[in-house]
Design the sequence.
C-alpha cells in the first residue's frame, strides 16, 4: 500500500506566513522559519513554501528567508512563487529547495516545464494549479488566484504532465480556507487524467477530511493544508494515527 503524505504549506507574504479564505483576506500567522522548524520535528512528510505575491508583484522570490527555512528543516522542501525562468529554478534549488513549484510562470511560458524537466529531472518539477469553477467549467487562475486565464484546468494539467511535470498540486480556490473538506469532484477528475503524484490542497477542516480524501480517491498521493496545522486544530502526528486506524498507510515519525 502506498504511504500517503501529509504536507503543511507556508503561504509567505512580506516575509511572514499568512492565511486567508478563498485566497482573500490574508491574516498574519507566524515566522516561516519557526513554523518550518516545528513541522520538521513533528511528523510532517514534506514542507511547501509559497511566496504568494512574487508573481503578482512581478518580483523574484525572497531568497534570504528561503535559505533560512531550508537550513533549519530536515524534510523535503518544495518552493514556489515568481518562478518564470530556468535561472529561477537554479536560484531556488541553490537556496535549498528539493523541488520547484511553477504556476504563473508556466502559464506565461508553457515550454518552461519541459525545459526544467530536461535540465533538472521530472522529479524536481511540480506543477501547481489554482482552479476555480467559472460558468460550469474548471478554470485555471494565475497570480495567486487573482487572474482568470480562461484556460480549462484538466486539459492544462494533462498538457503540463506530458511536458514533464513530475507532480501536481491542485489548489481548489472554491474550497480554500473554508474548512468543509477537499474538492473531491475536481481531484477525482485530475487523478483520472494523469499518472503522476497528485497533491490535494484547499478545504481541510479536520482529520476526517483527510480520511474522506484518501478513502474516496485511493490513487491520490498526498493531502496539503495550512491553517488547521498552523493554529493547532489538528496535530500531524494525531492525524497520522487516525489515518492508520482507518487502514490508510501514513508514515509515523518519533517526535524530537
Sequence:
Amino acid at each position: 500500500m502506498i504511504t500517503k503524505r501529509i504536507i503543511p504549506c507556508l503561504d509567505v507574504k512580506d516575509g511572514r506566513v499568512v492565511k486567508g479564505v478563498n485566497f482573500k483576506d490574508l491574516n498574519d500567522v507566524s515566522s516561516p522559519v519557526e513554523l518550518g522548524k516545528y513541522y520538521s520535528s513533528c511528523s510532517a512528510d514534506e514542507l511547501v513554501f509559497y511566496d504568494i505575491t512574487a508573481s503578482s508583484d512581478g518580483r523574484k522570490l525572497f531568497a534570504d528567508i528561503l535559505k533560512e527555512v531550508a537550513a533549519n528543516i530536515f524534510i523535503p522542501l518544495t518552493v514556489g512563487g515568481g518562478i518564470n525562468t530556468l535561472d529561477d529554478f537554479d536560484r531556488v534549488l541553490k537556496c535549498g529547495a528539493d523541488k520547484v513549484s511553477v504556476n504563473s510562470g508556466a502559464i506565461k511560458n508553457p515550454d518552461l516545464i519541459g525545459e526544467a524537466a530536461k535540465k533538472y529531472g521530472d522529479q524536481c518539477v511540480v506543477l501547481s494549479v489554482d482552479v476555480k469553477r467559472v460558468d460550469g467549467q474548471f478554470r485555471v487562475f494565475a497570480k495567486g488566484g487573482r487572474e482568470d486565464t480562461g484556460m480549462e484546468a484538466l486539459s492544462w494539467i494533462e498538457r503540463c504532465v506530458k511536458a514533464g511535470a513530475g507532480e501536481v498540486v491542485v489548489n481548489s480556490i472554491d474550497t480554500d480556507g473554508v474548512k468543509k473538506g477537499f474538492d473531491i469532484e475536481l481531484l477525482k477528475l485530475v487523478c483520472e487524467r494523469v499518472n503522476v503524484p497528485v497533491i490535494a490542497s484547499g478545504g481541510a477542516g479536520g482529520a476526517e477530511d483527510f480520511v474522506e480524501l484518501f478513502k474516496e480517491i485511493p490513487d491520490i498521493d498526498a493531502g496539503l493544508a495550512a491553517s488547521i496545522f498552523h493554529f493547532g486544530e489538528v496535530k500531524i502526528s494525531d492525524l497520522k494515527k487516525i489515518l492508520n486506524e482507518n487502514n490508510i498507510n501514513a508514515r509515523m515519525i518519533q517526535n524530537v
Observations:
- The chain has a mean pLDDT of 90.
